[in-house]
């Protein structure tokens, strides 16, 4: 009977981790999109940029608010969630594992082989 309770607790922990990871990644996606746009734009100071760009050409994104405005104007609101699905496929399992292992370690550190009781539905 105890094994069934541990399995149920693990399923709850995995599910909670999946949901928490999905929500947090989706909410922070606009900031990640802006960060990535800055990371991938070529700057005139790099050697590859000298080959590929005219030195007088300014960077496309010069500040966070300007980048936000341009992404919204060019791609609409959906542009801030571009690439979110692949990111979810990485973050959700990671968070589920992290959440489940954290609970198991807390239980182990407390000196109990039993998991916290799960309310019956």
From TrEMBL:
Entries under SUPFAM superfamilies matching the protein: Mitochondrial carrier
Membrane topology type: Multi-pass membrane protein
Keywords, ordered alphabetically: Membrane, Repeat, Transmembrane, Transport
Signal peptide: none
Pfam families named among the record's database cross-references: Mito_carr (PF00153)
Subcellular location field: Membrane
A biological-process GO annotation: transmembrane transport
Repeat region (Solcar), residues: 8-108
Any single GO CC term annotated in Swiss-Prot or TrEMBL for this entry: membrane
Recorded family membership: Belongs to the mitochondrial carrier (TC 2.A.29) family.
Protein name per the record: Uncharacterized protein
